Amino acid sequence: MKGDRKRSNKGKVGKVKKQTLRPINQNEAGLFQQFINISNQYGKLRGQYEEYSTILKSMKERRKQVASGEIKLPIMFPLGKNKYYNCNDKKYILKELDDEIGILSNALKGVEGQMQNHKDVFVETAFSVRDFLNDRFKHYTPKNVYSNGCSPKKEEQILFEAELDELAKDVEKQKEFKKAKKKAVEHNKKMG
Question: Topology of 24-138 in CATH?
């Protein structure tokens, strides 16, 4: 009878395990590049802000010293390129310093405004990167917690875990850790 034969090459139908993790494409890499560019711009503005703040503080201190007589007259003033003259007029010197302080204060306010705008964009971009990474890798967990190229042997892992357990039990080490953590948190608050 035709059709009663059993075939040995009958294919098994099953689920094919699909690789869902794909490499980052060019558009996605652009998100990271944008994040880096915004970070660099924000960093430059912060540096400029710090520089202007330092100069402004120095100029205000110098003005105070001239006003109190701590800095003796005459003072060298620029006349032109590489040319200076002695100025004995305290009133004129203080007016010139006040003008410079005003200009620098306005410049500092402008940089501060730009820095705040860039900070907002920087944070928004960071959230975009975080959301992208969370979405892309939400179904994955690392099998190992050590870096690429480092594959500790079982005995090494046990030793490391034992050292962590020992540190967790040591009251002095915990106090040191809490102190270092508090210091790091305070430092981060000042930076951010």
Answer: Helix Hairpins (1.10.287)
- 147-163 pLDDT, tens digit per residue, is 655 666 655 555 566 66
Q: Where are the domains of the chain?
A: 24-138, 150-192
Q: Tell me: the pLDDT tens digits for 113-132?
A: 999 999 999 999 999 999 99
Give CA–CA dist 137/7, Å, rounded. 43
Residues with Cβ within 8 Å of 167's Cβ and at least 6 positions away in sequence, in order, are 173
Cα dihedral: 168, 169, 172, 176 (round 10): 10
Which sign, positive or negative, has the C-alpha torsion 15, 16, 20, 26?
A: negative
Query: What number of CA atoms fall less than 13 Å from residue 128's CA on the CB side?
Result: 16
pTM of model > 0.90: no
